[in-house]
Design brief:
Layout lengths: L8 E4 L5 H12 L3 E6 L12 E3 L5 H15 L5 E4 L5 E2 L7 H11 L1 H17 L2 E6 L12 H21 L4 E8 L6 H4 L1 E2 L10 H14 L4 H13 L6 E4 L1 H12 L2 H11 L4
Parallel strand pairs: 1-2, 1-4, 2-3, 4-6, 5-8, 6-7, 7-9
The chain binds NADP nicotinamide-adenine-dinucleotide phosphate.
The site of NADP nicotinamide-adenine-dinucleotide phosphate (NAP) has 30 residues, from helix 1 and helix 6.
């Protein structure tokens, strides 16, 4: 798909920070007609694309957001980038079911809501692309970030099924799986609500390492470039790892026996 006179329409969720903002800016500068979203667009500085209100945990908000784009474009959305995602750091036992449910509402059901809202438009045109933002944590579940990784595993399984349902209708689904990216996401990740002493000091150390790795991660522009490639490709890859860490995680998962792979993950977070 190349940007031409009729400017393909791209909707990027969570376009006020990190990967979403870099992606929306890059696509806009390459001639795409981009719409971004924010939970509170009026509080955000102007961008070279309009920001629409969206809370992905709300059915009504997702439907209203897509309706607004469709109204502005005559019903056309060529690409949906389901970028919004957030995290919880802590041992699995330290989170309540309510916290975990809230995370799934955003990271998994947020993508489901947006996808279900755009699909009637894409099916009508027998064309479209949906890009779901996973992570290297979508192939390796990291201790003390188990629920974040569980949402990304779920998003990957959802995307795989969706892709095979939609390909015959001319709609491509891809997963983007970056390693650590330098954004505020580590610093803003929630902490599990009920600390259990037995997990100290390992949990604090793992959480600190996680936050540090994200601060020192790759430039969000690198992920944006990978997304631009997927948008332009005639045959977009089902899954696009971004960065060495994500590629290495995928290779290790495929090549190592399960016990060896999990021992490697424990070693990587100092839990062996
Ligand atoms: N950073 C990394 O190392 C990394 C690595 C791999 C994958 N990822 C994934 O990449 C995606 C983006 O991460 P990021 O690091 O760029 O995050 P970020 O900088 O924290 O940005 C998150 C964006 O999502 C929006 N947002 C947050 N909660 C929302 C909600 N409930 N409803 C609607 N919008 C919401 C925020 O906008 P407002 O506050 O304006 O609403 C913001 O624009 C996530 O899916 C994340 O899991 C990140």
């Amino acid at each position: 798909m190349t940007p031409d006179a009729d400017h393909p329409v791209v909707l990027v969720t969570g376009a006020t920070s990190g990967i979403g903002r870099a992606t929306a800016r890059l696509l806009a500068s390459n001639g795409y007609r981009v719409f971004g979203t924010s939970r509170d667009p009026t509080s955000r500085p102007p961008e070279p694309f309009p920001l629409l209100p969206l809370e992905v945990a709300s059915d009504e908000s997702a439907a209203a957001c897509v309706r607004r784009v469709a109204d502005a474009t005559g019903g056309r959305i060529d690409v949906l980038v389901n970028n919004v995602g957030t995290g919880i750091l802590g041992a699995a036992e330290e989170s309540t079911a309510a916290e975990v449910r809230a995370l799934f509402e955003v990271n998994v059901l947020g993508a489901v809501r947006m996808t279900n809202a755009v699909l009637p438009l894409m099916r009508a045109r027998r064309a479209g692309r949906i890009l779901n933002m996973s992570s290297s944590g979508g192939t390796a579940s990291i201790p003390f970030a188990a629920y974040y990784c569980a949402t990304k595993f779920a998003l990957e399984a959802y995307s795989e099924g969706l892709r095979n349902e939609l390909l015959p209708l001319g709609i491509h689904v891809s997963v983007v799986a970056p390693g650590p990216v330098s954004t505020p996401a580590g610093d803003t990740a929630a902490r599990a609500a009920h600390p259990v002493a037995d997990y100290e000091p390992a949990r604090s150390k793992a959480a600190d390492e996680f936050v540090k790795a994200i601060r020192a991660g790759m430039d969000p522009a690198t992920v944006a470039e990978a997304i631009l490639d997927l948008v332009r490709s005639d045959a977009p890859a089902p899954r696009r790892p971004v960065g060495l860490q994500s590629h290495a995680t995928g290779w290790a998962r495929r090549l190592l026996p399960v016990r060896a792979f999990q021992a490697l993950v424990r070693w990587a977070v100092g839990r062996s």
